[in-house]
Amino acid sequence: MRFTSEQRLDDGVLEREFTLGEIPGILWTPASASAPVPLILLGHPPLGLRKMYPRLVARARHSAADGFATATIELPGSGDRPRWPAAEQARADLRRTMDAGEPVSDEIVDALVLPLVEKAVPEWQAALDALLSLPEIGGPVGYSGGVISIGIRLAAVEPRIVAAGLFAGSFVPRAMFEEARQVTVPLHVLLQWDDEGNHRQAALDLFDAFSSKEKSLHANMGGHTGVPQFAGDAAAQFFTRHLK
After folding, report:
1. What's the rounded Cα separation, in Å, for the pair 22 and 19?
2. 91 Cα distance to chain centroid
3. Mean of the pLDDT values across residues 126-136?
4. CB within 8 Å of 1: residues ≥ 6 apart
5. Which of 49, 81, 211, 214 has the greatest CB tally within 10 Å of its CB?
6. pLDDT tens-digit profile of 150-164?
C-alpha cells in the first residue's frame, strides 16, 4: 500500500488516497483516536470512485464521528482502472433489455455480477491485509453497502468481517443464494420497497436464505435513491453494536 495524497477535512477527518498495486483507494480516519480503531469497508456500485466520492465521504464522516475508520477501493473495470470489455458488454446488454421493457435473464445477471465478484473479492481481501497492518487500524471489521453479491461473498469467506450492512439494490445471480446460506455474521439489510432496479421478491428470498442468527430487514417506501436519513442512522447503530 502506498499513500499518494493526504488532507484534513473541515471536521478533522484525515483522508488519504492510496494505491494497492494498480488499485486506487481512499482511507478515512477519525480526527483523534487514542487507540487503534475499528474499520468499516465501504462498498459502492461500479460507477467509479470519482462519481461516488460525495456519497462515500459523507458515509466516512458519519462513521468517523462514531469512532470508525473507513476505506474503499476502486472496483475492477471502473474509474481510472483498465477497461473491462466483458463487463461493459454485460452492462450494455442489461440497459438494452431494461429499455425494451423485457425481463432480465439469468444469463445477463450472471455475466454482469459473477465475474465482478470473482475479481473484486480477492482485491478487497488484499486491501484488508494492508489496512489492518496500519498502526491506527485495529479491527474488528465491518462491510457496508455496495454490490450485494460482493458483500455476500466477503461475509461468507472472510473471517475478519464480523458484521455486514447490505443494500438489496442490485441483481443477484441464483448461485449467490447458496453462498448466502453460508453467511452467519450479524446482518443489517436495507430494502427500498419500490426500487425499480431490484426484484423485491428475490430480495426477500435472499434475506430468508442467510443463516445468520441475528439478521434484520429494514424496508422503506421509495425508489433506489430514496433511502431516508433514519435508515442510515439505524445502520450506524448496528455497526456501533457489533464493532465496539
Report:
1. 6
2. 19
3. 96
4. 18, 19, 20, 127, 130, 131, 133
5. 49
6. 999 999 999 999 999
Q: Which residue blocks in the chain are alpha helix, DSSP H?
A: 49-65, 85-99, 106-132, 148-157, 175-180, 200-209, 229-243
Q: Kindly state the percentage of the chain with pLDDT values over 90.
A: 78
What does each C-alpha distance from 196 to 98, 113, 168, 169 come to in angstroms? 10, 18, 12, 9
Q: How many CB atoms lie within 10 A of CB 101?
A: 6
Name the phi and psi angles at 205, rounded to 5: -65, -40
Q: Are 38 and 141 in contact (CB under 8 A)?
A: yes
Cβ contact 81:88 at 8 Å: no
pTM for the complete prediction?
Answer: 0.94
Spatial distance between the Cα atoms of 25 and 23, rounded to a whole number of angstroms? 7
Single-letter amino acid code for the residue at 241: R
Q: Is 119 exposed, middle or buried (0-12, 13-18, 19+ CB in 10 A)?
A: middle
* Residue 199, CA distances (Å) to 24, 94, 145, 155 in order: 32, 14, 17, 22
DSSP state of 75: P
Grid coordinates belonging to 165: 450492512
Helix H or strand E segment including 76: none
Identify whether 76 is preceded by a cis peptide bond (ω within 30 of 0).
no
Helix axis angle, 106-132 relative to 148-157, nearest 10°? 50
- Condensed to tens digits (0 to 9), the pLDDT of residues 23-77 reads 999 999 998 766 899 999 999 999 999 999 999 999 999 999 999 999 999 999 9
As a whole number of angstroms, the distance between CA 241 and CA 92 comes to 41
For residues 210 and 166, is the Cβ–Cβ distance under 8 A? no
Nearest to 156 by CA among 110, 124, 192: 124
